[in-house]
């Protein structure tokens, strides 16, 4: 459930019709800010809100561009830019050795596990998979946009796969780690 909350702004942006992209960007910005406020009130630190904070910044910029020029060329590439932004945020979180999934995992993991090497390593692997999925999705969406298919059924399928595949990996990987730990 925490992944759905984390990516809620992106889901909001994806479900609003492309013709109203400026309103989609604004709604996604509102969703990002609402998630950040709600999570901060619940006690989450900014380390657990890496994607949410990056999302708010991205959608603020996208909304500004979209309202300033609704016919901007950015529109055709907005889905690719969204995935590229997520890839960048996730990659930076890896580079600074604070995988974005670490903050999410801490919400459901006992505090005594947080500093353990296997926990950090597992989150590094999971974040790397999400980063690769976002980057691959961005590349395919950019190719589709360049071919004039940026808002097609194929583009939608690519976007969905870009979230579903790493989600499935995450759940299966965590389950296998728990099974392994239980066997020890």
Automatic annotation (TrEMBL):
It comes from the Bacteria. Keywords: Membrane, Transmembrane, Transmembrane helix. The keyword Transmembrane helix applies. The chain crosses the membrane at residues 20-37, 49-68, 74-96, 125-148, 154-175. This is Integral membrane protein. It comes from Streptomyces vietnamensis. The lineage of its organism: Bacteria, Bacillati, Actinomycetota, Actinomycetes, Kitasatosporales.
């Amino acid at each position: 459930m925490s992944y759905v909350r984390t990516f809620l702004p992106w889901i909001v942006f994806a479900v609003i019709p492309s013709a109203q992209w400026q309103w989609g960007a604004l709604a996604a910005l509102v969703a990002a800010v609402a998630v950040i406020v709600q999570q901060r009130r619940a006690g989450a630190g900014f380390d657990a809100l890496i994607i949410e904070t990056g999302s708010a910044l991205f959608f603020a910029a996208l909304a500004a561009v979209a309202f300033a020029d609704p016919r901007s060329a950015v529109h055709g590439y907005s889905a690719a830019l969204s995935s590229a932004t997520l890839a960048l945020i996730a990659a930076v979180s890896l580079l600074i050795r604070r995988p974005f999934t670490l903050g999410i995992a801490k919400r459901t993991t006992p505090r005594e596990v947080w500093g353990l090497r296997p926990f950090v390593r597992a989150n590094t692997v999971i974040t790397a998979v999400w980063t690769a999925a976002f980057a691959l999705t961005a590349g395919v969406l950019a190719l589709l946009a360049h071919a004039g298919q940026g808002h097609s059924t194929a583009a939608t399928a690519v976007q969905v796969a870009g979230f579903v595949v790493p989600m499935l990996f995450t759940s299966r990987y965590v389950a296998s780690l728990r099974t392994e730990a239980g066997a020890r």
